[in-house]
């Protein structure tokens, strides 16, 4: 298995040399500056690849192994195969990625909102901070800030009362922070930032789309793009919904084992794969993550390894330390190792420590929400320790050598 690191590009607070510090070898990145739906040119992809893979003398080489993500335009989610111009543009970007030698593309199919949290700096019992999804706060946003028509039908009278009390206790800053957290697109999001009126308008566009229709649109998208992925040697990996349940009255169709089974049955192409995100899938107590990893092992080409802790109300959760949540990370890695030992070269699984607590010096710095360096470094070290204990240590990075140094070594 190969140690990945999510890097948000040359303006990110974490540099490529700092990625080397933590022991990662594989970069997970994207052309984040490109608008959703824009065609990625071969020149732009190759320039970013060369930035990542041109190694200073004496430094450990890095490789851009995973694109996360090529965003799927909203029109594809609403229209499926009928969104031909958008799908053709997406295929052009995919082809540029494949021809640049990047073997894996991660994507998601969450409508309107991508991953969703109500708090970005929830204070844990260690004093470090984590991201959190609080059900009552979310309900307060939906019922009394967004005021989604018909939302009250999704909540019991007691839940509405709790939401009302939660909303009443909020100061104006708390309300503004909540709106920003939910509508402004979190890092790596593949949906556009929205105003509250724009949010309502976007939800209205989905009023006739239920789970079967959204799933059919994803199937039509995959039927169109997997031949191109096969042609350029790219594996597509669908990220689970986060949280893995309907939000804002919108369907979610990548939340359970049954969801993925339906997609793999409908589109059996070997290019149709899975991003195995333990944090997203682990929020649901009915998801057996080790069993899901075992069943879909051959479809897993990329893994997000993080942990969450469900709270007293299990609909609420926060990001926990990587080995301290509801997911048995050892059991999951045992399944991934069993699959990885069958693979070679580009086929080995890239994993990254996903998210991480904001701790130590990062508490006093500007960090990318969800992606502080120190918390992710801790997570990667813990995951690396499990792999060593399982007898499957990840590749040890070696520094690049100049021609003269290499000649002396050979002599």
From TrEMBL:
Cofactors (names): Fe(2+); Mn(2+)
Signal peptide positions (record): none
Source organism superkingdom: Bacteria
One GO biological process term: D-glucuronate catabolic process
Gene Ontology MF, one: manganese ion binding
Catalytic EC class: lyase
Catalytic activity from the UniProt record: D-mannonate = 2-dehydro-3-deoxy-D-gluconate + H2O
Function: Catalyzes the dehydration of D-mannonate.
Biased composition (Polar residues): 401-411
UniProt region (Disordered), positions on chain: 392-411
Protein name per its UniProtKB record: Mannonate dehydratase
Pathway per the UniProt entry: Carbohydrate metabolism; pentose and glucuronate interconversion
Keyword entries, A-Z: Iron, Lyase, Manganese
Membership in a protein family: Belongs to the mannonate dehydratase family.
Pfam families per the UniProt record, alphabetical: UxuA (PF03786)
Gene3D superfamilies: Divalent-metal-dependent TIM barrel enzymes
Transmembrane segments: none
EC number per UniProt: 4.2.1.8
């Amino acid at each position: 298995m190969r140690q990945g690191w999510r890097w948000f590009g040359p303006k990110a607070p974490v540099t490529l040399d700092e990625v080397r510090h933590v022991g990662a070898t594989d970069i997970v990145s994207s052309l984040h500056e490109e608008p959703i739906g824009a065609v990625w040119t071969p020149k732009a992809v190759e320039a970013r690849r060369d930035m990542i893979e041109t190694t200073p003398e004496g430094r450990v080489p890095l490789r851009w192994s995973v694109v996360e993500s090529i965003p799927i335009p909203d029109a594809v989610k609403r229209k499926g195969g009928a969104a031909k111009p958008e799908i053709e543009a997406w295929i052009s970007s995919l082809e540029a990625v494949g021809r640049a030698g990047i073997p894996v593309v991660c994507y998601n199919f969450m409508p309107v909102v991508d991953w969703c949290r109500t708090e970005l700096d929830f204070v844990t019992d260690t004093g470090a901070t984590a991201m959190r999804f609080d059900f009552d706060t979310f309900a307060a946003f939906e019922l009394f800030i967004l005021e989604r028509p018909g939302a009250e039908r999704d909540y019991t009278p007691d839940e509405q009362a709790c939401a009302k009390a939660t909303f009443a206790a909020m100061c104006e800053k708390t309300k503004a922070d909540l709106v920003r957290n939910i509508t402004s697109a979190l890092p790596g999001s593949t949906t556009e930032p929205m105003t509250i009126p724009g949010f309502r308008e976007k939800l209205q566009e989905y009023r006739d789309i239920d789970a079967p229709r959204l799933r059919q649109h994803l199937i039509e998208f995959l039927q169109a793009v997997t031949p191109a992925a096969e042609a350029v040697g790219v594996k597509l990996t669908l990220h689970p919904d986060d949280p893995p349940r309907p939000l804002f009255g919108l369907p979610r169709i990548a939340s359970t084992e049954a969801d993925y089974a339906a997609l793999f049955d409908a589109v059996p192409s070997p290019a149709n794969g899975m991003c195995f995100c333990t944090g997203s899938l682990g929020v649901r107590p009915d998801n057996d993550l080790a069993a899901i990893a075992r069943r879909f092992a051959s479809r897993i080409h990329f893994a997000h390894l993080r942990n969450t802790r469900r709270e007293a109300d299990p609909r609420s959760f926060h990001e926990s330390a990587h080995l301290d949540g509801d997911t048995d990370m050892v059991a999951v890695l045992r399944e991934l190792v069993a699959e990885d030992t069958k693979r070679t070269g580009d086929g080995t699984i890239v994993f990254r420590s996903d998210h991480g607590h904001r701790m130590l010096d990062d508490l006093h710095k500007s960090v990318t929400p969800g992606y502080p360096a120190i918390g992710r470094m801790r997570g990667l070290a813990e995951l690396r320790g499990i792999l060593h204990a399982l007898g499957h240590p990840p590749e040890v990075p070696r520094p690049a050598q100049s021609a003269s140094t290499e000649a002396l070594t050979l002599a």
